[in-house]
Every structure is written in structure tokens, then in C-alpha cells.
Amino acid sequence: MAASYGGGCCPPMDLMRSEPMQLVQVIVPMESAHLTVSYLGDLGLVQFKDLNSDKSPFQRTYAAQIKRCGEMARKIRFFKDHMSKAGVSPKEILDKENDIDLDDVEVKLEELEAELVEINANNDKLQRSYNELVEYKLVLEKAGEFFASAHRGATAQQSEIESQEVGEDHLESPLLQEEKSIDPTKQVKLGFLTGLVPREKSMVFERILFRATRGNIFIRQSVIEESVVDPNSGEKAEKNVFVVFYSGERAKSKILKICEAFGANRYPFSEELGRQAQMMTEVTGRLSELKTTISAGLDHRNVLLETIGDKFELWNLKVRKEKAIYHTLNMLSLDVTKKCLVGEGWSPVFATTEIQDALQRAAVDSNSQVGSIFQVLRTKEMPPTFFRTNKFTTAFQEIVDAYGVAKYQEANPSVFTIVTFPFLFAVMFGDWGHGICLLLATMYLILREKKLSSQKLGDIMEMAFGGRYVILMMSLFSIYTGLIYNEFFSIPYPLFASSAYECRDTSCSEATTIGLIKTRDTYPFGVDPVWHGTRSELPFLNSLKMKMSILLGVAQMNLGIIMSFFNAKFFKSAVNVWFQFVPQMIFLNCLFGYLSVLIIIKWCTGSQADLYHVMIYMFLSPMDDLGENQLFPNQKIVQLTFLFLALVAVPWMLLPKPFILKKQHEARHQGQSYAQLDETDESLQVETNGGEHGHEEFEFSEIFVHQLIHTIEFVLGAVSNTASYLRLWALSLAHSELSSVFYEKVLLMAWGFNNIFILIVGILVFIFATVGVLLVMETLSAFLHALRLHWVEYQNKFYEGDGYKFDPFTFTLVGNEEE
Description:
The chain is α+β, with helices and mostly antiparallel strands.
């Protein structure tokens, strides 16, 4: 297959074409099925197809084993939560011992879970008792203070009454004695309740009590300064101690219900001072005992979690692997004899030997009497796309895949994107000072990539780290284009030679080139530093960057069309070569290729011709003389020829292809193409043309409309895409002007005040503006514009991007997956 697709039409680059794929069938005995799938997972080069898609997960062969692994995974997550709360980190797996038995793991996990649950339950009970005793102690203190102060007040009042009675008239004493001789059975006895109520509910609590008992209560509250842990919720809360005096059982029942509704915790309390002191001593002693017990329990739990942490990663990896294996086994179909499993999947052609070796090892290691059968199937189904990338090319491939995954063995844009993407970014970002800042930042990521790759980074940092080699290329190209623009934080430096121009007299320093005369050879590399700060700087750089943008755009669009030629040759489609590639090249280059040539001629000759006038009147008045806008002899004849060819190219793209495809379809149905079935090398050739639908019904109108849309899109896109490349000029100009403004209006202005404080402030503002605006926002802006130029202007010339990724069964990422 590799030979049939090689064709010699493309450079022999690994990334140009996706790997040749094959549909394979594996027949595995039941006794070696588990080990076979495990070895294939270690290999990571087979993408299994689900042959049981009509069955629900519960109807599949290994549903019970998956449920069992799921239960073990739940226990592991339970351990992980408790380890994270306790601050225990799982130890890394130093020796990759994966030969532990799953049954042993299951038993061990069950024992450890039962022990941990029991420890937690005991600890919760002890903690609840401890919190209750803390609240009880607070009630004893606050209520005791209230009763003590009330007792002192009552004693003082009684003494005052007695002293008054001794001094009163003797005649009144019989009346008072008679008044006191009331029946003791008719006296009212008051009861009381003590407890704690949340502070935010205390006012409402008091008001509800008052209304419910119609004012027949007396309540006192005392604020607790520190927060206490609520025994029921286990959360810290601010509370008040309350004492409620009531009369009668009916009032008591109402108060109890209100306490329950407000979450108020009630505690018993004695009026006797001796009993209060005794209770305080008992509570203090029990608190000390509970604190010691809880501390010992936590130590025991931490020891248990440390024990779990030693084997946590190993168990986690084992359970995840087993679950992945059984999920894969469920994708295999059971043979009619129920003695073997049949699996189908995609694999790269180069992996055939490795897969067969894995199957053989699995049969030997599982002591199976029958080996596995491996065979390649022939199919017309579209294979997945697989590119072998490294850490440098991966990020560029992901940029392309974000637009769409390449169709099987379609030309891959990332081969050239590795260079063109950072280069177009640098055209917009050209400043070698800013480029050095980007280079230093990305070198930090590259030099510490081993350490950073094992850490969990934030979303933005993770994105920057993943694209570190893209940023490296962007920074290097930015330094290169910055040297061409001769800008270092907007300051020009004569690095390669002195300026070619000098002032004729001292008056020419007023930012004008009129007084400049050329005294040396042309500046050897980039823009002459003398242009900076002159009146002609902006018109000169505008003209230079605008024309340069058109040249780069036309060159990249031509590259895209040339890639479509390679695709057509690779898939042996002569129709696409003669009726798509050729007319597209003619149309684009007769108009905008011609404009690019005029730009180069104007640069080389120093002509004053107006290229806008030339291109506009090439269409409006092609027969008129060019006059002073003529750049070379016979230019009018050349323009008429190019205009005629561009007009002819439009029907050339539109009309022949649908009719040829219709004719080819009719020829296939007359039996002229069935001979291909005997060619084994063509077993996986994918039909890519719009009209090659095999035995499906051919809709000529649909094909014609599709070709019409494609032609209109290309003709209009040739104009709009060329104009779109002018963003290179616009963003380059914006970056340069912003950098110049920050330098002149911030740094130089602060320097002019001759004040050290203002200078420091100016330097800080300049640094933050440079980093925040030019190195972050401008970098992101130039990145997105370069991305658009590749996705739209470049890739739409040849890239279909309607394939799907090769997603093999592998254990590589199993340990890092989050369920």
C-alpha cells in the first residue's frame, strides 16, 4: 500500500501524508483475550471498532467486570478525597510493577475502606460529643454567671426588705404577718430551659417565644465572643447562650418546639451552685479525655492514609487499566462457539509485525493452547488519519487539526505551517527587542519542560506550555523581521553599517529627506535607520509593507494551489489537475501574480508608475494606452493576454469537470472499472472526487451546482483573500506605532522632567505597557490573524479536512484521566 500511494509526487516527508492504514481482524481465544488486549494497550497502535454497538452496556459480555472495576474506582476516589483533606500525597510509582492481582487489590481495598469508614464513624461520634461538651461548658459558664448575679441581687433585696421591716410601726406588723400567711400550695413555680441559639436568629427567636407564650416568659441572652462548632452540622457558627423562664407545662412544650425549629441546642442546668461546680468539673474532665482520644484517632487515621498512599498510584493505575481492558473487550464480538472473541480495528501498516508479536506473546504467557489469528481485511471504508509527530511538530499539527482533521493521506498543511505560521506572525510583530523578550520567556518553558510537564498548570499557562515550540519559532522570526524593519522597541540601530545618507546641511535634521544626500553604499540589510523620525517614514513604510503583504499573500495562495496539484497527482485524479489546478493557477497569476511582478519591477527600476491605475484600467479600459504608467515594453499586449486567459479560466473551471465526472460514472456502470478488484494494493484507496460515488446514484445537478459554488468562491476569493493579506501591513504598522508612542510619550517624556521619581514612574509605566499591550495583547492579536490567514486564505485552496483522527487503545494516558 505504501508503494501504491508513494507515487513520487511529493517530497519524502513524514508529515506530508498520513500513515498508510489497514483494517485488521483479530480472533482471540477466550483464555488469552484479557492478556492480548492488555499487550495491545501497551503497544497503543490499534483502534478497535465497536462490533456490539446494537447492545446496551448492560447486555455486553464483560458488564459484570466493568461494574466490579467501577466499584473499586469508587473506593479509590473515596481514599483520594480523604488523603487530600488530610494533606497526604500519594507516592509515585518507582518500579513499574503491574503484575499485582486484581482480586488481591479488591480484597485489600474492601478491608481498608471498612477500616477507614469505621475510624471516620468513631471520629465523628467523638467530635460530636466534644462539640456538645464545649457548648455545654459555655452554657454552664454563662448561665452560671446569670444565676449567680441573680442570687446576689435576690440576697441583697431580701436583706433590704428585712431591714425595712424592723424599723416599721408596730401597728402594721399584724397586717403584714397576715398578708404573708398565704397558702403555699397556691404559689406559682417557675421552670427554666438553657441552651444555645445561632446569633443571626436570636432576635427572631426571642420575638417568637414572646408571641407564642403571650409574654408569659422571661428570657436572658449572653453573647459568646468566639465562634463554636455546631455538633449537628459540624460547621463554625456564632451563637448566644439563652435562659428562658416559663410557667406551666403548656408553655414548656411550645418553647421546646420553637427551640427545635430554630436549631437551638438545649442543655440541662441546675440551680444549685454546688451542683453547677460539680457539673463544670465533670465537663472539663470529659473534654480533656475526648481531646486525647480524638487526637489518637486522627493519628491512627493518618497512619492508615499513609499506608494507602504508598500503594495508591499502583492500585489506581491497575484499576483504570483493567476497566479500560474490559471496555475494549466489550467492543469485541463473541464467536458462535463462544470460545473466542473476534475484533476489528484500524492499525498503521508499519505496526503489523509489532501487533503479531504482541498476539504471540499473549498466547504464550496465558498458556493458551490455540494462538490468535491476525488478518488484514479489504474495505472501501475511510481509514482514520494518523501522523507521527514529536514534541516540536505536535503543536503545529494541533493548529491545523483545530480547523479540521486531514482526510486519509491528504496533503498535510502543517509541513509548511511550521515555517509560514511563525513567519506571518513575525511580519505583523516585527521588533527584535520584543522578539528577544518572547524568546527568553519560551526558553524558560523549554529548559524546564521536564519539571513543568509533570505539574498541573493553569489553563492559560498550560496553553502556553503546550505551544512553547510555536512561540520559540515566532520569537526567532520576530527577531529576524525586527532586524529587517530595524526596530528595537521602536528604536533603529545601525547594526550592519552606517546609514547610506547624510545631511547636506544642519537644517535637514527637521525630519525631512529633502536635505539628505547618498554618500555611501545602500544599507546592507533591512531598512536604513535614517528613515526613522523623518516626514517620509510613514509613506515609505506604508508603501513597503503593503506591497510586501501582497507578495507574501500571492506566494502563499500559489503554494496552496500547488498543494492541490500534489493531492490530485497522489490520488490519480487527472480531472482535478487539468480542470481545477491549471485554471486556478492561470486565473490567480494572470491577475495578482501579474500585480506581484509589477511591484518587483517598480522596486527594481524606481519607476513612478501608479499600480492602482494600471490594475483598475486593465479591466475598465484594457485598450487604452498606459502612458507614464508603462513599466516595460509591450505591457498593453501582455495585459490583454492575461485578461483573456483569466476570463477563459472561469468557464474552464466550471463546465468540463461535471460532464467528465458524469461520463466516468457511466463508464464504471458499464463494467469498465471492475478489474480494480483484483489489485490488492488498491484495497484501501479512498475515493475523493465529488463524482466518484461508486455504485451510488449520480446526481449531475448536484455536482454541477457544487462546481458552480466552488468556481464562484475561488474567483471572488482570489480578490478578497489577496486583500485579506493586507492585515500583515495593518498590524505591522499598528505594532510599530504603538511601540513608538510608548517610547516617545512615556519614556522620553519622563526623562525630560529631570526628576528621579517621575523617571521611575515613567520606566514602570513603559515596562507594564510594553508587557501588557505589546507582548501579550499584540502577540495574541498577531497569532489570531496568522491563524485566520492559514485556515481561510491558505488551506481553502486544497485542504478538505473532513477526516477523523486515529484514536488507538493505549494505556499511555490512562493514569492521568479524570473520570
